Amino acid sequence: MKKYVLSFLIALTTTQPVFAESFVVGTVEAQRGHQSSGYLNVPPGIDAGTMIPITVAHGSGDGPTLALIAGTHGYEYPGITALQRIRKSLDPGELSGTIIMVHIANVPSFLGRTIYYSPADGKNLNRVYPGDPEGSLSQRIAHTITQEVIEKADYLIDLHAGDGNELLRPYVYMPLTGETELDAAAKGLAMSFGLDHIVIDEAPLRSIDDSLYTDQTALVRGIPAITTETGQMGSNDDYWVDMAEAGIWNVLRHLKMIPGAEEINEGITWLIDYQVVRSPQDGIFRAAVRDGYTIAKGATLGVLVDFFGDEIQEIRAPFSGVVNYVIGTPPVSEGEPVAMISRIQPD
Ligand SMILES: [Zn+2]
Prior knowledge:
Elements: H1 2-15, E1 22-25, E2 28-31, E3 34-42, E4 50-58, E5 61-70, H2 78-89, E6 96-102, H3 107-112, H4 137-148, E7 155-160, E8 166-168, E9 171-176, H5 180-192, E10 197-202, H6 214-219, E11 225-229, H7 238-254, E12 269-278, E13 283-287, E14 294-295, E15 300-305, E16 311-316, E17 321-327, E18 331-332, E19 337-344
Parallel strand pairs: 5-6, 5-7, 7-11, 9-10, 10-12
Antiparallel strand pairs: 1-2, 3-4, 4-6, 8-17, 9-11, 12-19, 13-15, 13-18, 14-17, 15-16, 17-19
Helix pairs in contact: 2-7
The structure holds zinc ion.
């Protein structure tokens, strides 16, 4: 009997890879087959600290670790709401692998209702990675997420939307780093997220100390990553939330983390050479196009006027392509985006 048990155990250990009994992120520990929620603490430093709400779902079965980060920009809600839904309906007993959900990466910006920049330090969280434990709050948030979330992941999705001022047609940024395996894995994520516009983001690997972006911070560590954009103008409408949620479920099927066949994404429009058109000075932008319009080179994207309403200049498309997003509210500051345009990849 003893011998039988031993050989049975050996059979188990030789056929099943080691999969930890529990998974720990900060002070949040999830046992196998369960999920657990709590906060990552970002302690005070040169300014006040904050807390980052997270959920760790540790599956019953072996599999990869997927990091899902929402609320990097606090006015971009659909990803935040989609993760709340996933947390509610996910069954960790049916999960293979582990999901780390960052519900709101940037709580100061979320509660402060700010676009782009944190009200705490004026910094854009998606431009300060990998962060700095001695820096201001956004840098410390980035440092905490890098150490506690990104470095524990095998795959990463940073869930964005058009910010509170952006009319945006949904798309995925698919980074191309030049590293064959990394690029193939990122393409798998990008296609399985299910959106019909994928922007090929030529993103050669940055320095590990100066990765700037959430997705680059993963990529320079050899972790496939994409950035998704589902939503616009601060809307939390179901239309956008459904889109983000469906994308996540299909990525989970693609990675074989949940049962069911991946839905294959047919009919993708591949977009290349994206360019962010920026405002030459402070003023008021009046868009002449909407998100998703196709536009010819030299056609008017919108008009920049001064605070009295007098025209400063027309802002024109640098080349023919698709309007991925355009600014939909009046204020623009010098150097800020007014639109993003990309070319349709030729046949
Ligand atoms: Zn964003």
